[in-house]
Automatic annotation (TrEMBL):
InterPro entries: PHb, PHb_sf. It holds the Pfam family bPH_1. It comes from Muricoccus pecuniae. CDD domains: PH-like_bacteria. Residues 7-117 form the Bacterial Pleckstrin homology domain. This is Bacterial Pleckstrin homology domain-containing protein. The lineage of its organism: Bacteria, Pseudomonadati, Pseudomonadota, Alphaproteobacteria, Acetobacterales.
Length: 128
């Protein structure tokens, strides 16, 4: 319980049901697309589907403007998971794609299994 509360305050992502990412996210899904895992911070979120990474980037003061970024797994070059140390409350997932120099970076709540789940799904999807 304390971890969820601290995660909400610090903005660390935790695993959620896909519906928790909002109506705009659900509209971005294809009819036959399967969400393997979804994660949400206070404002933003991302999901790993059966064929792509979907990122919900809410912008502006109210967060009503939303960018939906789609990164097919074939465009992912590499990824890394940095686990938390003794005093860290989060773990970090970074994903590099062909389009940009800077990686997508997601802060995941430590101890909830989110980083391990994301790492497993990415490993399976990128295995080729």
């Amino acid at each position: 319980m304390l971890g969820k509360l601290l995660g909400a305050v610090t903005g660390d992502a935790g695993q959620v049901a896909p519906e928790a990412l909002g109506e705009r996210f659900l509209q971005a899904l294809l009819p036959d697309e399967t969400v393997l895992a979804a994660f949400r911070t206070v404002r933003d979120g991302f999901a790993l589907t059966d064929w792509r990474l979907l990122i919900m980037d809410r912008q502006g003061v109210t967060g009503s403007k939303t960018a939906v970024v789609s990164v097919p797994y074939r465009s992912v070059l590499r990824f890394s998971v940095e686990t938390g140390g003794t005093l860290d409350l989060d773990e970090e997932l970074r994903i590099w794609d062909r389009a940009g120099a800077d990686p997508w970076s997601f802060s995941l709540r430590r101890g909830g299994g989110a980083a391990a789940l994301a790492q497993r799904i990415l490993s399976e999807r990128l295995r080729g």
